[in-house]
Structures are given as C-alpha cells and as structure tokens.
Write a structure and sequence with these properties.
By secondary structure, the chain is mostly helical. The chain has 7 helices and no strands. The termini are far apart.
Length: 189
C-alpha cells in the first residue's frame, strides 16, 4: 500500500484540532468537524496498516452523530452542555472494560492481520471508544482518557512516521488538558 497523502493528513489533523477545541468550549458545532476529520483519517489509518485505528474512525462517525443529537437536545433543554461525573464504581467498570477489550482486540489483530503494534493500537482504540462515549454523555472523565490516549498515540504515530498526526496528538494533549480544566469549572458552576 502506498503512504497516505501528507496534505490529506494535515487537513484531517486540522479538522480534528478544530473539533477538539470546540469540544473543550462545549460547542455542539464540534461534531461537523469531527465527522469530516474521522472520515479522512479512516482512509489514512487503513493505508498505514493501523487497522484498529481505521475501524475506530467508523465508530467515531456513528458516535459523533449520536453525540450531535444528544448535545443538541441537552442544549435545547438546559441552554448549555451540562457536565457530569461517573461514580467510583462506574470508573472502575470503564477501566476494566477498556483493559479487557484492548487485550482481546489486540490479540485478534496480532493473530489475524499484519497490523503494526497491534496491542498498542488496540489500547489506543479501546480507550478512545470509551472516551468518545463518555464525551457524548458529557462525563468529565472523558478528558482523563483522552489525555492518556494522546500521550501513547504521539509515540505510536511518530514510530509509524505519521508526523502530522503525531504533532496533532501533541496539540490534542494540550487541548485535552484545557478541556479538563474548562469542564471542571463548568461543573462547579
């Protein structure tokens, strides 16, 4: 397979930066940028043989459509995106679920494909799935997961010479920290 077009990777990266910045600001318009960005990234990751990340983009497309609808209804009812938290038991359940899913998916990718770094890729994918669901449900904990994903993803994408994407994840890390701080302030008010 040929390498993805760098300009396309840069475009996808820019779309995702705008998306996450709008999420941090709790703007429903984040979803339009997310849908465009994940569609482009599905193609890029498939060509880089990061199959878990490629499949993840399809999931992101569906969850972004759900999130757009959920956030729009919440804004219509409350006038803003309301931030909530998980219980300690809920947090533990999500962590165990992510670990089990990452190990299972990583094993499948290792066993049945020529995936690069199947367990790391699976860990990023499963933590991203959980983070996106929690984001759509407006739970503060989504930011902790995104921060962890961003840190691991920078190393993986740099290793695969996906430099615009590695740089994207450095920016996403900074925005995720900002989002966590902003959502905590919003939760208190």
């Amino acid at each position: 397979m040929s390498a993805p077009v760098p300009a396309l990777e840069i475009l996808a990266s820019l779309l995702i930066v705008v998306n996450v910045a709008l999420v941090a600001r709790r703007s429903v318009w984040n979803y339009a940028f997310a849908i465009a960005g994940v569609t482009i990234y599905a193609w890029i990751f498939f060509h880089a043989r990061l199959y878990s990340d490629a499949a993840l983009q399809g999931f992101f497309l569906i969850v972004n459509l759900y999130g757009w609808r959920h956030w729009s209804r919440g804004i219509a009812a409350a006038g803003e995106v309301r931030v909530g938290r998980l219980t300690w038991a809920g947090r533990a359940g999500w962590v165990v679920g992510i670990a089990v899913a990452a190990i299972a998916w990583g094993w499948l990718m290792h066993r049945f494909t020529n995936a690069s770094y199947p367990f790391v890729d699976a860990g990023i994918a499963m933590a991203s799935v959980a983070a996106q669901i929690l984001l759509s449900r407006q739970k503060l904990e989504n930011w902790f997961l995104w921060i962890a994903v961003d840190i691991v993803a920078v190393g993986l994408y740099a290793t695969k010479d996906l430099w615009p994407t590695a740089i994207l994840y450095i920016l996403l890390l900074a925005i995720s920290v900002w989002g966590l701080i902003d959502w905590r302030k919003s939760e208190r008010t």
